[in-house]
Automatic annotation (TrEMBL):
The keyword Oxidoreductase applies. This is Glycine/D-amino acid oxidase-like deaminating enzyme. GO terms for cellular component: cytoplasm. SUPFAM superfamilies: FAD/NAD(P)-binding domain. The keyword Ubl conjugation does not apply. Residues 37-392 form the FAD dependent oxidoreductase domain.
Length: 445
C-alpha cells in the first residue's frame, strides 16, 4: 500500500503550483547584521502584505524567511479565495469575539478580495486569478435553511451573495445533485504560489529587504532594539512581527504551541477534455459540495480539476484509496464525466488551527507581536491581515485595532483531536440529514 508522508513539510516540488507558477525571483540570504525599523519573520501572505503596507508608508522593513516566499501554506493551499469565515456564522462570531472586534474583523474579511484583486492588478501578478464566484451546494433541505441565513447575514454587511434555486443550479454548476446553493459572486481562485511569488516581487519593488533560506534562531533584546538572529546574520529592529503560522519552527519560545496542526491534502487531475469542461463547472466557479466533510474543487488554467479534502480513516493514508474516494465523489457530483480521471498531482498542506478559527494577535513583549491561527482561510485572510499588522507596527492604539492583542497562550489540549472529531460529527450529521429527508448520499459518505 502506497502511503502519504507522515512527517511535516512534505516536498514543495510535488505541488501542481510549483510546476506551473512563474519562476521565483532571485532571493538573497541574510549573511550580515543589518538594521531596520521593523523585522517581519515569515514570507507568507501575512508577512508579505504587512511588509508591503509598511514599505509604502516609508518604513524600513526587513523580511526574513526560512525557506522561500510561499513555501508554507501560502504556496500549498488549494487556491480558493472566498472572503468568508469558516465554522462560525456571522451572528455567532459576534458572540464569540464581542464588539467592536467582531464588526471590525467582519468588515476586513468580507472585503478581503478587494485587496487581493487590487494587489494583483497594481503589481501585475500573473497567478491565474479568476473572480468567477464561489458556490456552496445544498444537498439536503436542512442545508437550504443554512444557506438562506448566509445570504441574509452576509448581504447585510455588504457582500454580494444570493440564493440559487434548484432550477438554476445545474446550469451554473453542471451538477444535478443540488437542491439549491449559495453563490458568493465576489469570490475567486488563483495559483497560490504564483500569487506568493508576485507578492515577493512587489515587496522588493517597494524597497523591502527580503531574505530567503534564513531561518530565525532567536529574538532577544539588544540595547533599545530587538535582535532577530539567523545562523549567519541578524536584524536589529525597533519592532518585530512573527507571521510564520502553521510553519512556525523556533523564533520565539512557545509560539508553536498556540495552535494545533490539522493536515489537508490537495489533488489535481489531468487536463480534462474540453467537452467535459463545457458541462462540468462551466462558469469556472469555485465549488463546495456543501457537506461538513468538505469536498472543494475548481479548475486551474490548464483545465485540471484541483480538489481538496481532509484525511479521515484510509483517506489520506492509502494513496490508491484516496484517489478512488476523490474520483467517486467527483463523478457522483457530475455523472456526465465519461473520461477516466487520473490524479497526477497530490500534496499536503498544514493548517494552524485554534478553537476560535479566526486569527489571533499576540503581544509577545513590548514591540514584538505574532499572528497565528488562520485556521484554513489563507488567501483572503492572510492578504487582509497585512493591514492590521502594519497598523500595529505604526503605533495604532490597541483599542482601535481590528483584532484584540492577547497574551501568548497555548492552545488547549483538546485541539489535538477536536478538529478531527468535529469533522466526523459533521459527516454523521449530514448522513442523518440525508437519510431522514430521503435525499441521495454520495459514495463513502
Amino acid at each position: 500500500m502506497q502511503s502519504f508522508p507522515t512527517t511535516r513539510f512534505s516536498p514543495f516540488e510535488t505541488t501542481l503550483w510549483y510546476a506551473t507558477a512563474d519562476a521565483a525571483p532571485e532571493y538573497a540570504e541574510l549573511d550580515q547584521t543589518i538594521a531596520a525599523d521593523v523585522c517581519v519573520v515569515g514570507a507568507g501572505y501575512s508577512g508579505m502584505t504587512t511588509s508591503l503596507e509598511l514599505a509604502k508608508q516609508g518604513v524600513a522593513v526587513a523580511l526574513v524567511e526560512a525557506e522561500e516566499p510561499g513555501f508554507g501554506g501560502s504556496g500549498r493551499n488549494a487556491g480558493h479565495c472566498t472572503p468568508t469565515f469558516t465554522h462560525y456564522t456571522l451572528p455567532d462570531l459576534r458572540k464569540v469575539l464581542g464588539e467592536p472586534w467582531a464588526e471590525r474583523l467582519i468588515a476586513r474579511q468580507t472585503r478581503a478580495n478587494d485587496r487581493v484583486s487590487g494587489m494583483i492588478r497594481d503589481y501585475q501578478i500573473n497567478c491565474e486569478w479568476q473572480q468567477n464566484g464561489y458556490f456552496m451546494g445544498a444537498l439536503t433541505p436542512a442545508h437550504i435553511r443554512d444557506i438562506e441565513a448566509k445570504v441574509e447575514t452576509y448581504n447585510a454587511v455588504g457582500a454580494r451573495t444570493r440564493f440559487v434555486p434548484r432550477e438554476e443550479t445545474e446550469a451554473l454548476t453542471g451538477s444535478p445533485r443540488f437542491l439549491g446553493g449559495w453563490l458568493h459572486e465576489e469570490a475567486g481562485h488563483l495559483n497560490p504560489l504564483g500569487y506568493s511569488r508576485g507578492l515577493a516581487r512587489a515587496v522588493m519593488q517597494e524597497g523591502v529587504r527580503l531574505y530567503a533560506r534564513s531561518p530565525v534562531t532567536g529574538c532577544r533584546r539588544d540595547g533599545t532594539r530587538w535582535r532577530v538572529e539567523t545562523k549567519t546574520g541578524a536584524v536589529l529592529a525597533d519592532k518585530v512581527i512573527f507571521t510564520t503560522g502553521a510553519y512556525t519552527v523556533g523564533g520565539w519560545p512557545k509560539l508553536d504551541e498556540t495552535f494545533r496542526i490539522m493536515r489537508v491534502f490537495v489533488c489535481a487531475t489531468q487536463p480534462l477534455d474540453p467537452e467535459t469542461r463545457r458541462s462540468v463547472v462551466p462558469r469556472n466557479t469555485t465549488m463546495h459540495d456543501g457537506r461538513g466533510d468538505i469536498y472543494v474543487y475548481k479548475y486551474n488554467r490548464e483545465g485540471r480539476i484541483v480538489a481538496s479534502m481532509f484525511p479521515m480513516g484510509r483517506r489520506g493514508v492509502d494513496v490508491g484509496w484516496t484517489h478512488k474516494v476523490m474520483t467517486d465523489r467527483l463523478k457522483w457530483l457530475h455523472p456526465q464525466i465519461r473520461e477516466d480521471i487520473r490524479w497526477e498531482y497530490l500534496w499536503w498542506g498544514e493548517l494552524d488551527m485554534q478553537q476560535k478559527t479566526v486569527p489571533r494577535l499576540y503581544g509577545l513583549a513590548p514591540g514584538v507581536a505574532a499572528m497565528t491561527g488562520l485556521s484554513g482561510r489563507g488567501v483572503p485572510t492572510g492578504s487582509m491581515l497585512g493591514g492590521i499588522l502594519s497598523e500595529w507596527a505604526m503605533g495604532l492604539p490597541e483599542k482601535d485595532l481590528s483584532l484584540r492583542v492577547e497574551p501568548l497562550k497555548a492552545a488547549p489540549f483538546y485541539m489535538s483531536y477536536g478538529p478531527q472529531l468535529s469533522l466526523r460529527y459533521f459527516r454523521a450529521r449530514d448522513w442523518l440529514s440525508a437519510k431522514t429527508s430521503g435525499t441521495p448520499l454520495p459514495p463513502h459518505a
